[in-house]
Design a protein that fits this description.
alpha/beta, Beta Polymerase, domain 2, 7-stranded mixed β-sheet
Length: 183
């Protein structure tokens, strides 16, 4: 699989990196802002891709990333031709959002490989969690953006917010969803 690294999107880079790693036996799940970028159809730009490793016993990650030109700099993997995006591996499976885990990611087939990404519903929960626990208003706006572009399970989101003891966040989210001038 070839891509133009100089101007690739988050989705193109996700598919490129995830299929390469999958072929090397390294399972990943895309999480974070890059998922928002993909589900918002490029309206939101994240600047990085966060992959959760499918196992805490992953070997050969630096070598596999080097195989496609990414060099490790601290916690980031950077490609000299891709100066607008970098890759990070912030954690390993089991993946959770707040008190809800393990999360079952969506699976996508790309060139015969199954790669994983948070579902739109779990992406919304993830973004709401950044608002709940880190007071990051951008997280709330991103949750609204994804919900306006993708089908999500509102009942599941409401139940999750109640389970996190943040019913008021769900109410604020619904209010913004109804507002025509929100993201």
């Amino acid at each position: 699989m070839k891509i133009n690294l100089k101007n690739c999107t988050e989705e193109e880079l996700w598919k490129y990196v995830a299929t390469h790693l999958k072929a090397k036996g390294i399972d990943t799940i895309l999480v974070g802002g890059a998922v928002v970028s993909i589900y918002s159809e490029g309206i939101y730009k994240s600047g990085d891709l966060d992959f959760v490793l499918g196992s805490m016993f992953t070997k050969g990650l630096p070598e596999a990333m080097k195989g496609i030109g990414f060099i490790q700099h601290g916690r980031h993997y950077i490609h000299p031709e891709c100066d607008h995006l970098f890759v990070e591996f912030p954690g390993s499976f089991p993946l959770g959002i707040g008190e809800d885990y393990p999360i079952q990611p969506d699976e996508k087939e790309v060139h015969g490989n199954i790669i994983k990404i948070l579902s739109p519903t779990d992406c919304v929960k993830d973004r709401l969690a950044t608002y709940m626990y880190f007071k990051d208003r951008d997280g709330l706006d991103q949750a609204v953006l994804v919900s306006k572009k993708q089908p999500v399970n509102m009942g599941s989101i409401e139940k999750w917010c109640k389970g996190e003891n943040h019913v008021e966040v769900f109410k604020e989210f619904i209010k913004l969803m109804k507002n025509e001038h929100s993201p």
